[in-house]
Amino acid sequence: MPKKPIATCSLALLLLLTSSCFDVLEEVNLNKDGSGSMVLTVNMSKSKTKLASIMLLDSVNGYKIPSRDDIDLALNDAVAHLKKSNGISNIKTTKDFDNYIFSISCDFKDIESLNGITAELISKQNQKGKTKFNTKNFGYLPNSKIFERRFTYDPSIKKSFDYLENENKKVFEDAAFIAIYRFNDQKVQSVSNTLSRVAPSKKAVMLKIDAMSFIKGEKTIQNTIQLSN
Prior knowledge:
This is Lipoprotein. The chain is of the alpha+beta class.
């Protein structure tokens, strides 16, 4: 993204200023040929009453409260970036200011196109921060029918968290990361992440982990999913 991945700049500031609980939802719908669609959602509905009050203010603790226009601009910047990405199409955003749920979605030609959205951003972060985050978040091998959600934990995650003020740390106490992977033409045979739940239809996998366990490296979003016809 131009400055922040998937327009999180204004949304992240809202979270830190309001000590709100939130969920981040990552959804991937994969076709057998490797094409598919993705949706990324930030859901702050659990704190919508508090957020509604905060949005009426100009600033909190010296920080300017992002307006609806600021959030719109951030999402528009994300869309502009996606339009320049190879193999990405059908880009859409949804904004629910009543419940504070924001999402951006797109179709991808193949997994490499999906990885290309954030690869450059992650690579620059690795160089700047001397971190070792995966530049390719997803993998798919059609012949062996293996889908991967790749992730390598880096201690910089915990270090960044430790720098936050105690009030801002509270934001993450009730936060969660939720991943849902759906397979339109194949069934799930096995999963490597023991926290995963396979749908009764065998065509979807859900993984939910609390933010604090993720930050401390106690739980991971890394997952290898073996598929079958």
